[in-house]
Design goal:
Blueprint (H helix, E strand, L loop, with lengths): L2 H5 L5 E4 L9 H14 L8 H5 L4 H11 L6 H16 L9 H8 L5 E4 L4 H10 L8 E3 L12 H9 L7 E5 L2 H10 L2 E5 L5 H4 L4 E3 L5 H16 L1
Parallel strand pairs: 1-2, 1-4, 2-3, 4-5, 5-6
Helix pairs in contact: 2-5, 4-5, 6-11
């Protein structure tokens, strides 16, 4: 799909990733990963940061243990990783550029949800502190029967809760892991952040460097205007 076609389209619902997409908390996960490795005297293999981005924290702990050749440490690494992240996330979270404005505008013409690999209480707390929680109708995280990204489950569930077919929904994502989940569920995808490389970019409908991209703002404004005039 060309950028022209996606920007001429109105989704039935919009489903946002949280870390690195809405909130500047991906840096906390990176710091938490680094601190956890240091705590256990481990050193990550080359490319670990990119491989771990967007993974569910339990899978990240297992990845750290496996790549360090210490699979027996998986559970301990997972617990320490979450401990460090929650301590860091307790700081006042910063929204990503354009996120607040886009969310506030989008909520005027479509139901919104968050699909995240983070624990629910962390997502709720961060969105609440950032004064974004009230805009979202649903928060979906891995749980019994809902597998984490890159499985499509969180996006399929979020679309269902919004009362929309997955193919009629837009996902907003910043990681390869999240893009895989959204495309696997059949959603159209707006990718955001630094250029991810050809493989990931080829999977999305449009990639922008930031949510304050003028084309995206104009797209949202047009849909709000249409909704108000209908």
């Amino acid at each position: 799909m060309s950028s022209h076609r996606i920007l001429a389209w109105t989704p039935a619902a919009i489903i946002f990733d949280c870390d690195g997409t809405l909130l500047d908390t991906e840096r906390h996960w990176q710091t938490a990963r680094d601190r956890t490795m240091d705590d256990f005297g481990l050193r990550p293999a080359t490319g670990f940061a990119e491989r771990s981005k967007g993974l569910h924290y339990t899978e990240c702990g297992a990845l750290m243990a496996g790549e360090a050749g210490r699979p027996e440490l998986g559970e301990q690494l997972t617990e320490r990783l979450l401990h460090h992240f929650r301590a860091l996330a307790a700081e006042t979270p910063r929204t990503m550029p354009g996120a607040r404005e886009l969310v506030a505008g989008a909520a005027k013409f479509a139901p919104l949800a968050v699909a995240s690999n983070c624990p629910r209480e962390v997502v709720e707390e961060c969105l609440g502190t950032a004064e974004l929680r009230a805009f979202f109708d649903h928060i979906v995280v891995p749980d019994d029967g809902i597998r984490p990204k890159p499985h499509p489950d969180v996006y399929l569930a979020a679309a269902r809760y919004c009362g929309a077919a997955a193919a009629d929904c837009l996902a907003v994502e910043d990681s390869h892991c999240g893009v895989r989940a959204a495309t696997g569920a059949g959603l159209r995808v707006l990718g955001v952040g630094p250029w991810p490389g050809e493989e990931t970019a080829a999977m999305v409908d449009l990639w922008v460097p930031s949510l304050d991209e003028p084309r995206v703002f104009e797209w949202a404004r047009e849909r709000v205007s249409r909704r108000m005039s209908s």
